[in-house]
User: Which sequence fits this backbone?
């Protein structure tokens, strides 16, 4: 008797196949990223178009020079291998638990004495502008909110923002990630030459911290 394909049992459902294919793509991407990051001592997370010479520049998408990687997944980097990790205006774009995991990953991949430098909008500064009725602070970034209320709401919700930090929240996250020496820095200033003059965005009172492993 001839057996038709519709009579055969379905061993793997289409959603499962789709999930397996997605995992395979992620694994391939992580493997390529691991190979391209190898040999670098410095990792630049969520670089966008700000590609820095001498750094492994990582983002979800971008030109060929950018290493493609999903930063909500574990970093494909061996532990205790990097001297520096830098991130500017990224952690506010992912959920708080995802950001906590990323900070812990940064701590893991750094050598003892290695440093993470992170820059992100300061929630306290934004609230102070709201209370003062100031809505023109970001005109140089082509953001012109019409009212203080819109400014506050847009800062929390636009551009894919998911969670904004104040100093206390970011310090707590860095400590929870394992960093014990935590210092607040000013725009483009660092005692370590490789971490100075890195910010490419204008200074709007961002939170900038360096955590040393």
Assistant:
């Amino acid at each position: 008797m001839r057996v038709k394909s519709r009579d055969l049992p379905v061993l793997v459902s289409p959603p499962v196949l789709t999930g397996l294919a997605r995992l395979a793509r992620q694994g391939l991407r992580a493997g390529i990223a691991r190979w391209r990051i190898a040999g670098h001592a410095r990792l630049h997370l969520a670089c966008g178009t700000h590609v820095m010479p001498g750094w492994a520049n990582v983002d979800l998408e971008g030109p060929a020079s950018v290493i493609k990687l999903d930063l909500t997944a574990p970093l494909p980097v061996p532990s205790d291998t990097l001297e520096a990790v830098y991130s500017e205006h990224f952690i506010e774009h992912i959920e708080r638990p995802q950001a906590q995991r990323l900070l812990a990953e940064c701590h893991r991949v750094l050598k003892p004495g290695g440093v993470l430098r992170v820059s992100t909008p300061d929630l306290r500064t934004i609230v102070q502008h709201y209370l003062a009725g100031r809505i023109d602070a970001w005109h140089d970034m082509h953001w012109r909110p019409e009212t203080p209320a819109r400014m506050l709401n847009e800062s929390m919700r636009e551009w894919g923002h998911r969670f904004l930090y104040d100093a206390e929240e970011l310090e707590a996250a860095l400590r929870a990630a394992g960093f014990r020496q935590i210092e607040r820095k000013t725009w483009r200033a660092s005692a370590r030459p490789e971490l100075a003059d890195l910010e490419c965005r204008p200074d709007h009172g961002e939170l900038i911290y360096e955590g040393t492993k």
